[in-house]
Amino acid sequence: MKVAIIGLANAGKTTVFNALTGQQRETPGYPVTSGDPHLGTVCVPDPRLEYLSALFKPKKTTCATIEYIDFIGLTKDDIK
Questions:
Q1: Which residue intervals of the chain are DSSP H helices?
Q2: Cα-atom radius of gyration of the chain, to the nearest Å?
Q3: What is the pTM of this model?
């Protein structure tokens, strides 16, 4: 699953991104309106998957993942 975090500049998008992904991306005190978006992938823990994996002992167990994308901030001129 992919989730994009979008919003106005200095609205706290990167702070939420850091909390969800465990990363420590810089959160500057000024609006950043250029650059590449930050990407972060998180494995979703599921005790049911762990139980079934222990029960059936598959060669490989793959957990569900969420990919977060932290886009650059929008400005008033971007919204029409």
A1: 13-21, 47-56
A2: 17
A3: 0.79
